[in-house]
């Protein structure tokens, strides 16, 4: 793919979802790095209390607070762009509730006392949507936060719950309306919904090229399209295994004898068995590529722009994360 | 039935030998076939499912690792080896559900067609409907008028359909019901999708504690005329209600209070039920299988879970390492493979030989690069698995190879069942 303008220029809140096991947190981290260019400040938020971001960026566990964790990608071939800053925040419902009580009622210490009484557990229990509203509320607050007339963060990346839960997680108004018909939480939910259901927010789906994740992605996209105002962002195909030869070359069955001769000229021994084994591996790969192509075309038919990240066989470390971020930037996602 | 007597006796003896043996089901000290879990004993799935004393198998693990598929494959294998099996699944992928003939979420075990009954076994499968299960508990424990009142309460409706933890509680509740009905001699349960495998163990207690707890009683007290509230509770109570009213509005609080007073007689029961099922999970007839993919996150969760089972004295059957990329049969290292690819790629531009030969060279170079990538992936998975096996060297492990396509039929489930058995 060629370099393009950023596909999501007006977006301030990037929500990243995906089926479990597709690498949602990795993609969210890479996206945050990619967005942090030209001195921009990006906040990466995690919501599931498992310290995935800290592990990804090789940092000690994050406290409830916004911390700088990385320097973003600079523009290529431009020494003047030093990159931007990536901040991270791990939200838990309890911290978000205390924040809320503090921000709206100035009752932080009372809030802490109530936590000891078990209030937070209780409140989030009797109103199941409450913790989602508090978490999305924190994310939208960060996206809108201003200091002396300027936005504090240029954008916010939210590592959201898995695809199966994303509709409910984001559709905060519907979720609390069953419970809170009036009252401050309802008002709060409406404010949050105004940000989430606006062009400022895009929901990106992470999928691998396998049946189940693709199906969940398609279901999730359909679900979000059914909610007025919600903007489906891009589809990030993760852990794709690029074809080593053209589709035509893969279709043709390998000439084992020719391969054996080639292996011999590369200085290898037992070339007959080796060539046969390699030909089998190629055939297996061809089958895999064909299956991947089928899943990819299903995703393409869904409509949103597609970005593709390669499988990194060595595993994800900081260097790999930067590589993925560069891919996202080069493909126009950031 | 298919288990010879002698082996049965040996198994009992082995079980009794040590505390270690009780906690971590003994498998023969045969080494795993693959090199990935070379130090750990190989999980002997057939031994677990053929042992008539195994009455419950729980498949747990973090999201996206293939728990449901593993549960279905184990259920099918056990049925075809002569057990009367019920698979209780919580949130199956559509096509997997179809493969077992499950078309709707109706909370009733359905007979799965196409299962061999050669050994006298059968397979039923059901999908959990958590709201229906909750409703049934209410209907069973309250008179019709009160039950109707509870079911219509908005607070009850959101609690029963969306409280995080209700699903786990109801899965355990259903498991307890199926077990007590004694219609099946083996129940295979797949735990609800959640980030953390531990949720399955913790959530029911949380719901039980919540429904049974002091807080809810304090909250309920004002609608009960004439019950004096102690002064200490009163202070706490007004603080609570004022905070809750601020948060949620007065209506929510009123709904909750109405619900609580209607629900009052059932509260104690909830905690007791959760505790009874929990004890069932600690009984020797239960076997936990932890499912994980060879990824750091999934294996870290698996580690937590294995340690937790140990603390709770719950019987661990072993680890199922799913979606393993097995190393290619040929022993050509990634480094040598890459070096050879580079050599060939260096020859091509020199224009040596005929065009057909150049094509062989480029195809071979590509195959060598592919092979190197494959080796790297397999070696990385081995490293990741090594972190688990070195911490838990006694946990029996079975590896299931990564399949290019998802499972959609019984034949696919059988293949997975085969890879779970000893070679």
Give structural notes.
The complex is a heterodimer of chains A (about 325) and B (about 425). Chain A is elongated. Chain A has helices at about 25-35, 50-55, 95-105, 110-115, 120-125, 130-145, 165-170, 170-175, 185-195, 210-225, 245-250, 255-265, 270-300, 320-330; strands at about 15-20, 40-45, 65-70, 85-90, 145, 150, 155-160, 200-205, 230-240, 305-310. In chain A, the strands form two sheets. Chain A has an eight-stranded mixed β-sheet with strand order 3-4-2-7-1-8-9-10, sandwiched between helices. A two-stranded antiparallel ribbon of chain A has the order 5-6. Chain A has one domain: Rossmann fold. In chain A, strand 5 and strand 6 form a beta hairpin. In chain A, helix 12 (about 255-265) crosses helix 13 (about 270-300). Chain A is built from 14 helices and ten strands. With about 325 residues, chain A is α/β, with parallel strands linked by helices. In chain A, about 50% of the residues lie in helices and about 15% in strands. The model of chain A has no long low-confidence stretch (mean pLDDT about 85). Chain B has about 425 residues and is α/β, with parallel strands linked by helices. Chain B has one domain: P-loop containing nucleotide triphosphate hydrolases (Rossmann fold). Chain B contains 18 helices and eight strands. In chain B, strands 3-4-2-5-1-6-7-8 form an eight-stranded mixed β-sheet, with helices on both faces. In chain B, helix 4 crosses helix 18, helix 9 (about 165-180) packs across helix 10 (about 200-210) and helix 15 runs parallel beside helix 17. The two termini of chain B are about 20 Å apart. Mean pLDDT of chain B is about 80; it is low at about 1-35 and about 225-230.
